[in-house]
Amino acid sequence: MKARIFVTLKGGVLDPQGRAIHHALDGLGFGGVNDVRAGKLIELDLADDTSDEDIDAMCRKLLANTVIENYRVEKSSKA
Amino acid sequence: MKSAVIVFPGSNCDRDLAVAFEAATGQKPAMVWHRDTDLPDDIDLIGVPGGFSYGDYLRSGAMAARSPVMQAVARAATRGAFVLGICNGFQVLTESGLLPGALLRNAGGHFVCRDVALTVENAESAFTSRYAAGEAIRYPVAHHDGNYFADDATLDRLEGDGRVALRYGESVNGSARNIAGILNDTGNVLGMMPHPERVIEPAHGATDGRRLFQGLVEGLMARA
Fold it and tell me: Which of B62, B100, B107 sits opposite A14 (nearest CB)?
């Protein structure tokens, strides 16, 4: 089983990286970009019997810092 | 008086901190590797040094905070040992939950490496007892992720309880309320981005940091 963990900064938390990307897009002439937020994608290859609770615990204990970040889990059974 | 400095792969201020501990306590600190699971039972003072532990992978301090030795540090802190986290050490202490909040990327996006003006907000902690409340001092900073963040309720609680030990006297990294260093609720854990261990000898160009270590030693002697 594969799980993709999307980690994003909470709203209201400053994202200098996103801001720098936004500036760079502006510099390349791409108009109409209202905002950019950068996050992380973490891909896990898991034993098929891994529970949702365990995946959630991995996110809370390490993969995301819930003081500043949100996370979302996407599971797929395809290799 | 027993002190220890924790060493993670990628720590680079551990030896400077050891020199500062030895100058203040008169004894060499134990250098404790991140994989160790125990600290001496009677440890009085623990330093969590600056650097780039685990290459800042995932988040600054995230991997170090989950290393075996940090459970021993947490147990010692609960017992009342003094814990001083500087720069990456502050990030490790917030990631491990020993201090509230988080350190974000600097607001300007730049690595900041210079001396900065600080104000001693709370001069009653063991860490700051040799300073006067409101005293203006200068320590160097050298960090990319020093932008202190916590929700408003946490910030209000920190301010109300006198747990903001140090505040920047100038714009440095975008920290909430210009917070440079905070204490835990029992006053025996301090995390700070600036580097007091880099200003303890005249040869450093300044000695503003020396009193922090002297105050800690006095605090420990008063307890004994």
Answer: B107
Please tell me the predicted confidence (pLDDT) of residue B138. Answer: 97
Contact B174 A14 (CB under 8 A): yes
Domains, chain B, ranges and CATH? 3-223 (3.40.50.880)
- Give me the domains of chain A, ranges plus CATH numbers: 2-76 (3.30.1280.10)
Distance from CA of B96 to the nearest CA of A (A): 10
A16, A62, A67: residue with CB nearest B105: A16
- The tokens for B137 are 């001092």
Cα B216–chain centre separation: 12
B149/A19 CB distance under 8 A: no
Q: Which of B87, B95, B121, B143 is catalytic?
A: B87
Has residue B191 got a pLDDT over 60? yes
Residues of B in contact with A63 (CB under 8 A): 58
> B115, B98, B111: which is closest to B56 by C-alpha?
B111
- Name the E strands within chain B: 3-7, 30-33, 45-48, 82-86, 102-104, 112-120, 136-143, 147-149, 164-168, 179-183, 189-192
Tens of pLDDT, residues B69-124: 999 999 999 999 999 999 999 999 999 999 999 999 999 889 999 999 999 999 99
pLDDT at site A79: 52
Q: In this complex, how many residue pairs, one in chain A and one in chain B, have their CB atoms less than 8 Å apart? A: 37
CA–CA separation, B187 vs B98, rounded Å? 11
Residues of chain B above pLDDT 70, percent: 100
